[in-house]
Amino acid sequence: MTLRALEFYSGIGGLHLALTRSTVDARVVQAFDWDQNACQIYDANTPSRLVKKVDIATLTAQCLSALRADLWLLSPACQPYTILNPNPLGAADPRAKSFLHLIQTVLPELHSTNSAPSFLLIENVAGFETSTTRQILKTTLQDLNYYIAELLLTPLQFGIPNSRLRYYLLARKSSFPSDHGGTEQEVRRQLPGYKHTLDTRGLELEAEQRKQSENEINEISQYLDPPELSSPSLRIPDKVLRKWGRLFDIVLPTSRRTCCFTRGYTQLVERAGSILQMNQDLDTTSTFDEFTALEAQDGPEAVRLLDKLQLRYFSPDELLRIFAFNELGQTPAFHWPENISSKTKYRLIGNSVNVKVVEMLVRYLFDVPYYAD
To answer: Has the keyword Transferase been applied to this entry (predicted)?
Structure first.
């Protein structure tokens, strides 16, 4: 029997795509999000109009019960928990309201009528694991007799050159396999039974061991657009380079790691995402040192020295590959509607999930072999 899934905070459909690729016999029957652009993109990439633009805080147990869901997929707002917020409020943040409504009100009501989902998968930012919301979530799920597994994972562990650390909670009515190990109080940093390329605590590895592990991660070059598709709009503006260039996380096509791309990519500098240096023959630091020395003499024109580095932003399509919406070597499964601006694309990708990581989590949740085709 095909399982029925609901997707909350569906964004551009990363959770849906991960479920589809997982080989689990399940389908999304309804998705919910408040963002109009996200809903438009979701509809453009799914075979039928599944997404409903709605304030999730208004959903009731009665309306969700009618959908007869076996699985909930949720990626609630991360702003109440992110370390990028200097004073995260957790459960006290108004943006946590709708998620708490689902967990504290709707789910118990569905449980009382034997119509609660048997499975849940929840994704959020690293930092959620120390929040008051996480304590409320765990207490509620345990009171409703769910078994729980919590994990902190990064795409690096799955061969993808991106260090975006995320928190995941899996819940189901039956116990997890014996290889889960640990206790329900432990947040794991490895997906049980999966051969990881790199532990999330990779910095603790011996240098040689770490080098060997990182060699199993794909080079960034595999995710880049063909040179003829590179757009001048990806070039870093001069005023940004002059003022903030040294703060960028600059990577090469041969690198095997990028930092976390956020919704503020191209709008913010620090901790917003990596910048690509296409000229690999020049040393980045010495070139910036030369620029600084020349700037004292030539002023604004000194920035032309940095042109030699060929610095640019990653394109939205390149980020779709890094986030595994489109798989390497495969016909693209995901596309943008024509009227979506670049700024909106970056914002919505930054709010999304890594499809490959979630796919592996779905397989673990349903005891499906990781390498099943």
So the answer is: yes
Q: What is the pLDDT of residues 89-107, one digit of tens each?
A: 677 777 889 999 999 999 9
What does the alpha-carbon distance between residue 57 and residue 38 come to, in Å, rounded to a whole number?
18
CA dihedral 342, 348, 350, 356 (to 10 degrees): -110
Looking at CATH, the fold of the domain delimited by 3-202+351-365 is given as Rossmann fold (3.40.50)
Q: Helix or strand or coil: residue 353? A: coil
Catalytic residue, candidates 39, 63, 78, 259: 78
Q: What is the pLDDT of residues 46-86, one digit of tens each?
A: 988 899 999 999 999 999 999 999 999 999 988 878 877 77
CA distance 241 to 248: 9
Of 103, 224, 175, whose CA–CA distance to 367 is shortest?
175
Say if CB 172 and CB 147 are below 8 A apart.
yes
Q: How many other CB atoms sit within 10 Å of the CB of residue 49?
A: 10
Going by C-alpha positions, the residue among 118, 69, 126, 72 that lies closest to residue 99 is 72
Give Cα 105 distance to the centre of its chain. 27
78 is catalytic: yes
d(CA 220, CA 289): 26
In this structure, which topology does domain 220-333 adopt according to CATH? DNA Methylase; Chain A, domain 2 (3.90.120)
Where do you find CATH 3.90.120.10 in the chain? 220-333
